[in-house]
Request: fold
Amino acid sequence: QVQLVESGGGLVQPGGSLRLSCTTSGIFFSYSTMGWYRQAQGKQREWVASITSVGGTNYADSLRGRFTISRDNDRNTVYLQMNNLNPEDTAVYYCSAKGGQYWGQGTQVTVSS
Reply:
């Protein structure tokens, strides 16, 4: 059974940072491209970042420089470091494996003073 479990979301003030984690089971993690997406209330889900099995990364243009995706193959975990957060980053953040074949349940990130 495939499971993707996100954690690390919460409430943060503008300008703050959060690190999201997504721990997986049931997939060959080290061979899987992993991605982060987000969905703000009333909006469509949007792609945030991806990381390939060999560590190649790509980011949505609007987020490049503030967000960093990384992975730990020994822990079957992918991370999203988010810096200098602003209220527009408020959303449910989802982890995805294998190009959207598998999804986590999401973790809420709220940026507010």
Notes: The longest strand covers residues 18-25.
